[in-house]
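Design job #97: recover the sequence.
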């Protein structure tokens, strides 16, 4: 099956590579647009000309009246009705606003795959201190180390008015997702017939870069502590991964360790990166597909294609609801399309092609990044022959108790294998804890050893 697709041409295409020297951010005059005709995060504040994308009015900054801390988040748009449904029969009417991956999904699953498109709701919002820091970063931050690091940025988005693909990707990597966060999620890789085994994780994030009062010079090049413990099934339970994510990945690559219950030892894990398989993923996602993209960007040339109106996953509260069971989501071939919500939004399109002299199972990746939040919403991934291989979707919600916009579910569909992987299932588990009490001592190899032996 050949699914070779070419990226559509866009007006205002910019051919800027990550490796191209970046000027010292933007001028004071350009930065002054933030919070005015641009949102504090750099999106176009106004709606589009035909009114199908509304103006940004601040997003959701307070929880609905029926929300209680610790609850799954009630859908603030539950009364919205489907505007139209795109399927294999009418997809050509909308192809200029569909990703290559979605078009291929219609070709691969013509009888079952569809996109229910709802009114566009620009719900993304962040704390005022993130906006304030982003304004400061705008005139100071710059790419370093041939685009593999960032300097002179802290707390906020480094490049709210980007001029290169590398800057856009770093905005995703450094976007605000809270400070000390715990989550209890499940991953599943259904067979073609729909059978699956849940792998359950306890994840912890200590977002050093985003903390109140953080200073660039005090980071010591580490932006996130991440720990992931497998708690089910029994044959995998007790495996723990610890990672220290870095800001300049040439000066200091990611440091990672694992604890294996069989060996009862902590070991360095340099292979937790790039295209090595993700934890318990059955080879269906790479390490750098976690969080839609993570880690060092050094194996790709990053081309900024431009900003475009696209139909993308958004406000996916049904996929987050505790009134929905995992089995309702995990249907054969792809997730249940009746639970997925799509909207028309402006996204930044970045095309990444493998650098000469490097290797990765994906020769090319096209990213679609939300202009309001810098969250990657979709990715098309191509094999070494140039054929479209895997389609990734990030289904976000506004966690309005923080507030932040982040995925509640990530779905990676293998078009060639006829299978998919889902990570982030939380419908039947406890909710995210955005006030986790941890210190730096909890994210050391010694702490990993103690936890493994308990």
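Job complete. Output follows.
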């Amino acid at each position: 099956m050949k699914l070779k697709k070419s990226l559509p041409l866009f007006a205002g295409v910019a051919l800027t590579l990550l490796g191209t020297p970046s000027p010292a951010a933007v001028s004071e005059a350009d930065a002054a647009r933030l919070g005015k005709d641009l949102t504090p995060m750099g999106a176009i504040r106004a709606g589009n000309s035909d009114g199908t994308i509304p103006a940004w009015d601040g997003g959701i900054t307070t929880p609905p009246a029926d929300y209680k801390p610790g609850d799954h988040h009630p859908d603030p748009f539950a009364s919205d009705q489907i505007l139209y449904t795109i399927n294999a029969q009418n997809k050509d009417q909308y192809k200029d606003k569909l990703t290559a991956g979605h078009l291929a999904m219609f070709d691969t699953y013509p009888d079952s795959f569809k996109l229910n498109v709802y009114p566009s709701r620009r719900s993304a919002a962040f704390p005022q201190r993130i906006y304030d820091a982003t304004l400061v970063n705008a005139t100071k931050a710059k790419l370093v180390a041939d685009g593999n690091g960032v300097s002179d940025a802290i707390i906020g988005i480094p490049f709210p008015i980007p001029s290169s693909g590398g800057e856009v990707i770093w905005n995703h990597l450094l976007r605000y997702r809270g400070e000390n966060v715990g989550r209890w999620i499940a991953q599943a890789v259904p067979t073609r017939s729909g059978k699956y085994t849940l792998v359950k994780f306890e994840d912890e994030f200590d977002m050093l870069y985003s903390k109140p009062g953080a200073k660039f010079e005090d980071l010591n090049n580490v932006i996130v502590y991440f720990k992931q413990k497998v708690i089910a099934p029994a044959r995998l339970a007790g495996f723990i991964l610890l990672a220290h994510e870095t800001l300049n990945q040439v000066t200091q690559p990611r440091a990672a360790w694992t604890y294996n219950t069989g060996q009862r030892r902590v070991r360095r894990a340099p292979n937790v990166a790039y295209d090595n398989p993700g934890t318990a993923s059955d080879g269906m996602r790479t390490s750098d597909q976690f969080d839609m993209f993570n880690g060092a960007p050094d194996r790709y040339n990053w081309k900024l294609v431009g900003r475009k109106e696209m139909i993308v996953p958004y406000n996916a509260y049904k996929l987050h609801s505790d009134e929905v069971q995992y089995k309702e989501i995990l249907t054969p071939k792809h997730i249940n399309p009746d639970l997925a919500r799509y909207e028309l939004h402006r996204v930044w399109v970045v095309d990444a092609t493998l650098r000469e002299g490097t290797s990765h199972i994906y020769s090319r990746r096209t990213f679609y990044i939300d202009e309001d939040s810098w969250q990657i919403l979709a990715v098309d991934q191509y094999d070494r022959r140039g054929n479209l291989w895997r389609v990734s979707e990030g289904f976000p919600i506004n966690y309005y108790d923080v507030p932040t916009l982040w995925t509640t579910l990530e779905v990676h569909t293998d078009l060639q294998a006829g299978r998919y992987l889902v990570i982030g299932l939380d419908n039947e588990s406890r909710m995210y804890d955005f006030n986790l009490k941890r210190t730096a001592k909890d994210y050391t190899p010694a702490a990993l050893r103690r936890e493994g032996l308990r």
